[in-house]
Amino acid sequence: MEEFTDVFLMVLLIVGTLGVLYVNNLFVATMLLGAVSLIMALIFVNLDAVDVAFTEAAVGAGISTVLYLGTLALVGANEKPRGKRSPIPLLASLLVGGILAYATLDLPKIGSVDTPVQMSEVTERYVYTSPEEIGVPNMVTSVLASYRGFDTFGEVTVIFTAGIAVLLILRQLHRRREDEETPGNPPFQKVKAEGSPHDLVPHVVAKLLIPFILLFGLYVQFHGDFGPGGGFQAGVIFAAGFILYSLVFGLDNLKKLIPVHFVEIILAAGVLIYGGVGVVSMLKGANFLDYNILSADPIAGQHLGILIIEIGVGVTVTAAMLCIFYGFAGRSDELEKNNGE
Amino acid sequence: MFFEHYNYWIFVILLMIGLYTVMSRSNLIKKMIGLSLFQTAVFLFYITLGKIEGGTAPILMEGEDVLYSNPLPHVLILTAIVVGVATTALGLALIVRIKETFGTIEEDDILRMEDEQK
Amino acid sequence: MNALFSQAPILAIVIPLMGAPISALFRGAVLPWAIATMLSAASFWFSIDLLVHVNTVGPISYELGGWEPPWGIEYVVDPLSAFVMMVISGISTGVLLYARESILKEVSTDRLGMFFAAYLLALAGMMGITITGDAFNIFVFLEITSLSSYVLISMGERTDRRALFAAFQYLVMGTIGATFILIGVGLLYAMTGTLNIADIASKFDAIAHTTPVRAAVGFLIVGVAIKLAMFPFHIWLPNGYTYAPSIITAFFAGTATKVSVYLMIRFIYTMFGEDFSFGEIPLTSMLMTLGVIAFLSMSVVAIFQDNLKRLLAYSSVAQLGYMTVGIALASEMGLIASITHVFNHAIVKTGLFLTVGAIFYMVGSTYIKDLAGIGQRMPITSFAFVLGGLGLIGVPLTPGFVSKWYLVQAALERGDMVGYGLTIAMLISSLFAVIYVWRVVEVMYFRPAPEGAECKEAPLSMMIPCWIFVIAIFYFGIETSVNIGFAEAAASFLMGGAK
User: Nearest by CB to C64, which of A120, A150, A160?
Assistant: First the structure.
């Protein structure tokens, strides 16, 4: 049965990607890409990678799709049909595919127990020793936050880079002048002014949903030790809650709630929190990111270290997603204003 | 033979379609989508490496003799997914600016305009 | 060994890495620049410390998180990685000293904090790639470097909108290259079950004949070749270098491709081992062919460029050809030539791009036709360019000569027709270099300046760093014990030590 689902999902995957390739409407292509990501997440669940599935669903099917849609709103959704086709792309892809197909010949059978990957001393320790050594049931969290914690520091830096990159590239055309707004104007009046009666349902639903989204974000943040989740997924969920708020109540209201400058500060703060743990362990005389030294009891030290760095991850991811959202959404607002003038 | 390497074949096909999309399409958004597909294919490859037949997700459970799939590829791919979305965000931001300054997001047109500018 | 020094390997990376978010917090122009310069200098200081240490005491392994390899990530400082780190952080510091005036003119003044944050991230990323002993960690730091380079290149849009498209092209190529490296690492992981480079190397021979490993070698080499702008994957480089802000071009010309050369050496010598790379698979002939085509064809292409920055960019692709050939010769002499050339070309090219930046600052253009009469209007800058050009050609007393001398010796060592052919090809390519440098000098000195052109030098804060590089060119051309000495140590370590 499992094999059947696998085959079925994979066929869907191929159909989806071919659709992406051939469809000329970019909206459709984007939605298909989101679907492909979602199917991929299901396949990851089948392959026991629940953390990855969670992230792929949140990022590939969620955030990425939002980004693409935001971009399409700015640049238009039709691909120009093309006359001439060069044979080079096809040949190059076939060559790469051919080499990979050749590579798979000697790869061990999928799922067998005696592959080099499963027999490795590395795997052994991660699976059998980590629960005692680190005291965290979710081995993915142990490896991610402790054994390979430096990679994760790099990952946070990548997200930070993306945040400042989008801010730098999509620099706002004009500085928004605060004095344009009437001082002391309560936000709900603005909502009324912007919205139409049809917005009532989304407003109510959003008001009901957002607290739960944020609560769920907190749960994912702090439950990562025991089940799938952690700072990254939590950050995405958090950002999604705020983005939903902005979609329903308007970007300006979100900016009042969380000013751009504040987002920039917490974007940097997350990286510094993460790195700060490393600095503290260095000051205590151990190596960078060695959590054992953080407490008299190594297991408690590991717990403390993982808790703090996961907060760092969550903070930076939330801030970076908001930065990126502000960059794109702010852009369309500005364009509208410019066109209006 | 076929089923033993089934996931790998899918990985190869996805990767080829992704790479072909990047290289053959002139629309910059289509290129970014192709790039995303190309990266997603690699995720499948890594995750497949960690799978054990009859295993379960690598979260400690009660009881002896539980077989866990390998957590390491999962960790690596978590990082790779993050890198992927960061690249997407940056690429799309560039596309927005390209549209604003060149007025088009078709590579052919941009290259023609660049030639004229010289 | 005191407590601070025992942390030097991580400090050299983490100082710029954590400096980035700090710099991003500051508004204004001066403070972020000062922070970036100081942190880059600190990183440079630790790199020198490490270089001296490994050459007297021996290689260092630093366990991140206190986890011993292969379970944790390991930093490995050996004569080669320390040397390359010294080059990267040194070039970065020199460029930053120069950056303040230039950046105010070329990049929008708001959010300079973030601009310098991106700069520091690029620096930290390259340092991280160099020092790490973990295959997947290479990928992570490669992406930090790449993402920050895309945005830094796109910042040239204020001067020329084509910077945006150049950055996008680089993003597509760079992502494909990085993903190829990811595939290669994955295939090796599938066969070895480890990500630690030394661990992979120790298991490599037993599995070298399997198809995944052979494919992995291909993917890693091609992935690095894309990042290295090796012919025929070089197309992104000339556009990127031409439209990026001046200091970014100068910074990347001296560092980014050098890191890729380093990775190529690391993969071929440390991971695969030279017996496999040059015995089992025909890497020598492949790399040598591409290298020779690169330095011959790209030198010719450089001659016909009308933009000075683009001319120098093509010249960079040609120079990378020399380094590839040095690796392909598979001898200690060849390696010395390549490693020395990494150092030599870095200071020569960065120096040249800095003088071009000074010219752009005053003239507002880098098109060769607009440089007429610069020799009279900006004599000090122009003279710096001429001296740098001599270094590029490889005139005796410049470091360019030293590395080419070693490369010729390595070629002749083979004692066959290929060796002689290579020597002749290098002579021809150097002749082309004379032509393209002369073309610029001729316009600078022997064409009359347009009427009403102002006669002024660039600010002192830009001229002094330029001249530091020019003096360094001649210092290291005459007193070769530093560059050759460390390169020899690195080469003999690679040939003898590992494997």
Answer: A150
Neighbours of chain C (3+ CB pairs under 8 A): A, B
Asked whether residue A132 is assigned to any structural domain, the reply reads: no
Residues 6+ apart with CB under 8 A from A288: A150, A278, A279, A281, A282, C7, C10, C14, C64, C65
User: For B90, which of C139, C147, C161 is closest by C-beta distance?
Assistant: C147
Residues of C in contact with A287 (CB under 8 A): 7, 10, 62-66
Report how far residue C166's alpha carbon sits from residue C144's, in angstroms, rounded to the nearest whole number: 19
List the structure tokens of C106: 């070329």
Inter-chain CB proximity C212 and A107 less than 8 Å: yes
- What gap in Å lies between CA A236 and CA C369, rounded to an integer? 52
Domain assignment of residue A162, given as a range? 138-176+189-341
Q: Which amino acid is at A302?
A: Q
φ, ψ of residue B52 in degrees (nearest 5): -115, 135
CB contact under 8 Å between A138 and B88, yes or no, is: no
Last residue of a domain, one of A78, A112, A147: A78
Predicted confidence (pLDDT) per residue in A4-27, tens digit? 777 888 888 999 999 988 898 999
| pLDDT tier, C377 (very low <50, low <70, confident <90, very high otherwise) | confident
Could you tell me which of A11, A44, A56 has the C-alpha nearest to residue B48?
A44
Number of domain units in chain B: 1
What residue in B sits closest to C165 (Cα-Cα)?
Answer: B98
Q: What is the pLDDT of residues C430-488, one digit of tens each?
A: 999 999 999 999 999 988 877 766 668 888 999 999 999 999 999 998 888 888 999 99
What is d(CA A197, CA A193) in angstroms, rounded to the nearest whole number? 11
Interface test with C, best of A88, A106, A308 (most C CBs within 10 A): A106
Mark yes or no for CB contact B87/C165 under 8 Å: no
Q: Answer whether C212 sits within 8 Å of A120, measured CB to CB.
A: no
A334 and A244, same domain (yes or no): yes
Domain total of chain A: 2
A304 has a chain C CB within 8 A of its CB:
no
pLDDT single digits (tens) C117-176: 999 999 999 999 999 999 999 999 999 999 999 999 999 988 888 999 999 999 999 999
Q: Is the same domain home to A142 and A216?
A: yes
Question: What residues of chain B, 80 to 99, have a C-beta less than 8 Å from chain A?
Answer: 81-90, 92-97, 99
| Residue C75 parent element (H or E) | strand C74-77
Tell me how far apart the alpha carbons of residues C218 and A235 are, in angstroms, rounded to a whole number: 37
CATH number of the CATH domain containing B53: 1.10.287.3510
- Alpha-carbon A63 to chain mean position: 6
Q: How many Cβ atoms from other residues are within 10 Å of residue B49's Cβ? A: 28
Q: DSSP H helical segments within chain A, as ranges?
A: 2-22, 26-46, 50-56, 64-75, 88-104, 116-119, 121-124, 130-133, 139-142, 149-169, 187-194, 200-223, 231-249, 251-257, 260-283, 298-340
Domain hosting B41: range is: 3-117
Tokens of B7: 């996931």
Tokens of A122: 């590395």
* A150 Cβ under 8 Å from any chain C Cβ: yes
A328/B93 touch (CB, cutoff 8 Å), yes or no: yes
Q: Do A289 and C111 touch (CB under 8 A)?
A: no
User: CA torsion C481→C482→C485→C489, rounded to 10°?
Assistant: 170
Q: What is the DSSP letter of A77?
A: S
Distance separating alpha carbons of residues B19 and B35, to the nearest angstrom? 7
Q: Does residue A104 belong to any structural domain of this protein?
A: no
Residue A195 and residue A291 in one domain: yes
A120 located within any domain: no
| Test the B interface: residue of C139, C176, C233, C309 with most B CBs within 10 Å | C176
